[in-house]
Predict the 3D structure of the following.
Amino acid sequence: MRHLILVLGDQLSFSSPAFDGFDAAVDMVLMIEAPGESTAVWSHKARIALFLSAMRHFAKDVAARGWPIEYVQLNATSEPSLGARLGDALRRNHPQALRLVEAGEWRMQQEIAAVCEHEGIALQVCDDAHFMCSNREFEQWAHGKRELRMEFFYRMMRRNFNVLMEGSEPIGGQWNYDVDNRSAYPKRTGPGAIPEPAGFEPDTITREVFELVEEHFPEHPGLLKHFRWPVIREQALEALHRFIDQRLVHFGTFQDAMWTDTPVGWHSLLSAALNLHLLDPREVIAAAEESYRKGQVPLEAAEGFIRQILGWREFIRGVYWLDMPGMKQANHFGHLRTLPSWFWTGKTNMSCLRDSLKQTLSLGYAHHIQRLMVIGNFSTLAELSPQQVSDWFLAIYVDAIEWVELPNTVGMALHACGSRFTSKPYVSSGAYIHRQSNYCAGCCYDPTLRTGENACPFTTLFWNFIEQHETNLAANPRTALMAKNLHKLSATERLGIAQRAAHLLENLDSL
Ligand SMILES: Cc1cc2nc3c(=O)[nH]c(=O)nc-3n(C[C@H](O)[C@H](O)[C@H](O)COP(=O)(O)OP(=O)(O)OC[C@H]3O[C@@H](n4cnc5c(N)ncnc54)[C@H](O)[C@@H]3O)c2cc1C
Ligand code: SF4
């Protein structure tokens, strides 16, 4: 055998460079289901099912091309780890080399390299051409910069790929329409009718996977009954086109809006399909740009959506590989508190967190502003350990793969990497959540109160956070106002906040 081509669960594309020059006479594809990958963190059942189902569908397509494939099923051996299963496969097949594209996780890349070394098999790691900026190019861009900012990276990417450009200038004269993209749903009428995203009835393969998941991971969090995720490329394309045709138009306007029992809003639900490589980011960006150029959606919508993919998604990946393995231990504020147990049940009195967590447990999905400004915001204010919070985010979302989850959680949401790639901590009081949602109307707490039994925990802990970090916040132009506002409070009120915050922090489990 010449090449044994390892296809990991998040590399399900026939455009993968690992297949370049594939010769069925001398090469073979290898795919491995490893139970250890589902238990490394306590994975949501839908996350496990999505990976297994998409992998099994892809393997079927590989076989349909007449390509030799060895597929190691979950229950094939008692050995749980991917590394051990890979070692077995290498000994069985004795290839001249193991080939794969870069893994989506630093630990897995190390594990694969160690197994190859141990077995004396050459390892060929190809650049992951799914991404528009290679790790090498990102390193070059970041070289010499102590602090990295997405906005400048995004402008470079817009120019390099000629996206929403008019010559050398951005269409419309502005790079960024973020200020137009912060509306809440009307408080009186709510979100109104939002077109349903595409959803896909589980087929035989997916239903078999459900049984396997219930058998092997019965205690894991989450439900499978709402599973409608795309598991093959054709479905992912249908989901993309449905989004572009029906929902992109208001994506920008309501990007930061939240509402009870409105789990998706105008968001695309495409992250999982993108992260499994069922969709190529170039085609997603092209579809959004085309929709704008045909006059079907406003520029703010197309730009806002494209920025998430061409900007944030590529930037986040670059930062991950640049800063690993150190990022895994990042803890700028030295926060060490334990994750409250209700993160796994949604049983909290705080209505914003209850809604965001309950939908997460039932769907494996929450949109960005719920992840950032509800769950992430609370985690920072409650001084939770970034590593525990990050493990939870990695476990619970269907789109979670470490390269994208870790920098978003520890870097963006928890500011645990300091100002390395975000200019300020994303923290707010209950006032922000009140403005952007209807959550507070159904809550036993009051977002306007800083002290007392009914004070919103976000509000109390926010002012406590400012008190704790006053000097640093005052020194940063983007947060100086927060520190200044602290001095408008009386000494008695500041003391009251400190006392109430201490009580809350000692009793996080009962909030
Ligand atoms: C604490 C935290 C953890 C997160 N963990 C993940 C994760 O594990 N996996 C993941 O894919 N995204 C993660 N994100 C980013 C973002 O929240 C999700 O990509 C998004 O909510 C997915 O829903 P959607 O497809 O409807 O996205 P939309 O809001 O419709 O956005 C369109 C696409 O842009 C991309 N995108 C948007 N924001 C980001 C971002 N910050 N980083 C990278 N890509 C982005 C996604 O591919 C997404 O599908 C996280 C964000 C936070 C704050
Ligand atoms: S009052 Fe506070 S805890 Fe309750 S929903 Fe509003 S922000 Fe959340």
Q: What stands out?
A: The chain has three domains: 3-126, 135-194+247-323, 341-510.
